[in-house]
Amino acid sequence: MHDSLTKELKRILYWIKPEICFVCNRCVSGCPVAEVHSEYRPNKIVKLAYLGFIDELIQSGIIWYCTQCLKCSERCPMDVHPASVIVALRNIASKKKLPPEAWIKMAKNIYVYGRITPEMGVVSKDRKLIKREDLNLRTPVVSKELIRRLYDETLFPINLGD
Amino acid sequence: MEARIGVYICHCGKNIAGTVNVSELRDFASKLPGVIIARDYVYMCSSTGQNLIKEDIKKLGINRVVVAACSPSMHLETFRRAVAETSLNKYLLEMSNIREQCSWVHTDPKKATEKAKRIIAMAIRKVSSFVPLEEIQREVQRKVLVIGGGIAGIHASIELAKAGYEVTIVDKAPTIGGKMMFFDKTFPTLDCAQCILAPRISEVTKLNNVKILTNSEVIEVRGGPGKFHVKILKKPRYVDEAKCVACGNCSEKCPVEVPNEWWFGLGKRKAICIPFPQAYPNAYLIDPNACLRLKLKRDVCGLCYKACDRDAIKFDMNEEIIEDTFGAIIVAIGGEPFDASRVVEYGYGKFRNVITGIQFEILTNVAGPTNGEIIRPSDGKEPRTLVFIQCVGFRNVNYNEYCCRIGCVESIKHAIIAKEKLKDATIYICAPEIRAFGKGFEEFYKGARERGIIFIKGLPSELKEDHDGKVIVQVYDASTDKILNIEADLVILSTGLQSSKDHEKISEILRIPRSSDGFILEKHPKLDPTATPIAGIFVAGVAQGPKDIPDSVAHAEGAAARVISFLAKGELELEPFKAKVNDELCSKCLICVRVCPFSALSIEKEGSLSKITVDEALCIGCGICAAACPSGAITIPNVFLEPILLEIEGALRWHRCMTL
Question: Can you tell me the distance from the alpha carbon of B660 to that of A4, in angstroms, rounded to the nearest whole number?
């Protein structure tokens, strides 16, 4: 049990009461991740977190599976918001520099390219590489400052250099 | 008479003494002017505590009593009875509430004690102005109004009629019988609902002292306990009940077809119809919103009129207002199923093969549109896979937070009926847990498992429909930790019972409160479940909260017994707090007559002069007239005006009360 972590979780999630879950399992039934990962169950994560198993959860990496589709929060009859609990757990994990490698890579991509994967373009029939600007498509403009601030706020453990 | 006040402070175990410093409060009270003695005791309501008061009245000549304890609605009567056992008048007692209004709601002992001092000073100042009063005896009408003719209303009426009371049943539907009339079988014994209800209906209709008004609504209630003046609106049926023999010739000829609300939209009915064959009164009626002639208000169609050889159809029937006086009222208005279309993700109303529990009841009913055959509504084929989904609209913060209490066992019943009719069908019940709490319910649940009905521990998140009408149910089963994908032919949503618009309407008309779930509030959740906070008005069955049939019947019989004990003496003792008009101060401005919500005040001629008179039977002593009177001509003994002014003085100058 880690009292300080549980306290931290309750501080972040002061606006919800995950204790009132009565295990109707609607969050699991509709979850697109639970369908493919047999160990991923939103209500199980919520209960484990509130029983004090936060360290195990953030070490196991299971919290990074969630796609944040928010279906569990939407369908919950008790307004428990499992998706928000998972975000809070991710914040705690970030503080401890625990996010998976791939996540840090994605975060860097967002900083550099404004999206998760860098732009790759498509190859036409006559083997020409076509980029966005060739098709007159707008390239998203990213405020690097804003993203840097976002990472600072969430304490995401990332070294963006200068 | 000089006031000799005795103050009695209750510890209520630790309920009061845990927060309020009782000995400090006692010392404070004993120093206030007029106080002869102040005592504290651990349970003032016990007979030892009551004896303390009685002894002091005898030995010390106490002539005003203040009890500082719980809410007067809890124990005022207890202490009044104790005082009445001595020579003192029982209306010379005042209770001050230092539990609900002080110790229970505060945590800081110091501040709570200071507040308790103010509360007690208010009562001590107030009680000094009290005068002895006598109770008012009032004759009661030995007649009872039962609103709602469902299973609860019918049972209460039968019991009351057998005890010799005159009963009037008012039902807004064109027949009595209520929701139970639509049931095929009842849980947990699986006996046919019609077979147990129809004899009760025929029994109630044969009793001479029961009057049944269908298609009627209560629109106004005036007066008070023992004498309620009630106005009932009887809507036209357009068919003479006495002449109609329910042969059905009219309905055969009728050209208008509309969805049948008696079958919850599963079939069609004609504009002239009968809800079900066993209806009482056993007569057809015309739906004025569907009938061409009544809708267009023109001399058209009239086919039913021509078909009827008994001359029973009367297009010129009008609304009728019936006025009567009753001694007591029983509210037995039942409830309604939850509107499943509000839960959008389950697609009720959009997906053809998603129906509600009550619709399934109609499907299995022999008198229903399919003659009891279970079919898929989309193509009329026999379903192979059935899925029941529990808790739709209940145990949910977005709809109803309470448990519907009948859904679990209702679905088990449906599943067993379906298993009997469709031998090799696969039946699933999706529920987080099964609540089988009643007598014989757990055995019934076991019986369902023995029959091979599959229980899934979990609810689906949403439903999807494929091109040929199959409903895809993706549901997680906690007991196997697997996510199942079921292709269901028929999905049944268990929609339980909730309060309806009628609860809102009836609580306004009768001025009775409702609980947060919308149902009628009972006087005490454990010790007085059939009375409402208003004397003379009782509640029976689902009107008070969701119930199954055995509970409804027990509750209704309890309400009937309460009404009998309420009216049996033939007279009532009313509290003497009634408005009194000082004719010399009165300027006959009639403001009081206009503001009285109970129409208790009126102006009457006495020779060449006129005078305001108060009908003590109607006045409840609310004090609205007294507050509105510009000349200060209206007083209410022991309530208004001096007692209130003294009470305010006690509240504001409590710290100076000692020097007053």
Answer: 58
Percent helix, strand, coil in chain B, to 5, is: 30, 25, 45
B480 has a chain A CB within 8 A of its CB: no
Is B208 a residue whose pLDDT tops 70? yes
Which of A29, A38, A79 is facing B474, going by the closest CB pair? Answer: A29
Give the separation between CA B383 and CA B363, rounded to whole angstroms: 12
**Taking CB atoms and an 8 Å limit, are B483 and A28 in contact across chains?**
yes
Q: Is B199 within the bounds of a domain?
A: yes
Q: Tell me: the pLDDT tens digits for B362-374?
A: 999 888 889 889 9
Q: Under DSSP, is residue A51 helix (H, G, I), strand (E, B) or coil?
A: helix
Of the candidates A15, A98, A21, A84, the residue with the CA atom closest to the CA atom of residue A56: A98
In this structure, the strands spanning B285-286 and B272-273 are: antiparallel
The pLDDT-based confidence of B138 (bands split at 50, 70, 90) is confident
pLDDT > 70: percent of chain B: 99
Helix, strand, or coil (residue B447): helix
**Residue B85 burial (C-beta neighbours within 10 Å; 0-12, 13-18, 19+):** middle
Name beta bridge partners: B63. Answer: none
Please give the Cα distance from A140 to A98 (Å, whole number): 30
Over residues B582-629, the pLDDT tens digits come to: 999 999 999 999 998 878 898 988 888 889 999 887 788 889 999 999
CB nearest to B395's CB, from A41, A71, A77: A77
- Asked if the C-beta of B402 comes within 8 angstroms of chain A's C-beta atoms, the answer is no
Domains of chain A: 3-95 (1.10.1060.10), 101-152 (no CATH)
Do residues B55 and B37 touch, judged by C-beta distance below 8 A? no
Domain containing B183: what range? 143-235+319-335+499-567
Considering the domain architecture, whether residues B532 and B593 belong to the same structural domain is answered as no
Best of B396, B461, B494 to disrupt the A interface (most A CBs within 10 Å) is B461
Instruction: For residue B206, tell me if it sits in a domain.
Output: yes
Residues B120, B124, B126, B130: what is their CA dihedral angle, to the nearest 10 degrees?
Answer: 140
Number of domains in chain B: 5
CATH of the domain at B116: 3.40.50
The 8 Å CB, 24+ separation contacts for B287-292 are: B287/B258, B288/B236, B288/B238, B290/B256, B290/B258, B291/B238, B291/B256, B292/B255, B292/B256
Identify the band that residue B657 occupies on the pLDDT scale cut at 50, 70 and 90: low
Cβ distance A26 to B397 less than 8 Å, yes or no, reads no
Nearest CA among B340, B243, B254 for reference residue B283: B243
The residue with tokens 């509600």 is B356
Tell me the pLDDT tens digit for each residue of B9-68.
999 999 999 999 999 999 999 988 899 999 999 999 999 999 999 999 999 999 999 999
pLDDT one-digit tens code per residue, B440-498? 999 999 999 999 999 999 999 999 999 888 999 999 999 999 999 999 999 999 999 99
Per-residue pLDDT reduced to its tens digit, B162-195: 999 999 999 999 999 999 988 889 999 999 898 8
B484 and B423 assigned to the same domain = yes
Q: Are residues B472 and B526 in the same domain?
A: no
Nearest Cα residue in chain B from A42:
B476
pLDDT above 90: residue A121: no
Domain with residue B561: its CATH number is: 3.50.50.60
Task: Give the residue from A28, A43, A44, A71 with the most B CB atoms within 10 Å of its CB, the best one to mutate.
Answer: A28
| Residue B331 sits in the same domain as residue B383 | no
Query: Is residue A47 helix, strand or coil?
Result: helix
Taking the Cβ of residue A75 and every Cβ of chain B, the question of whether any pair is shorter than 8 Å is answered with yes
Cα distance between the two ends of chain A? 39
Does residue B59 belong to any structural domain of this protein?
yes
Residues A26, B474: C-beta atoms closer than 8 Å: no
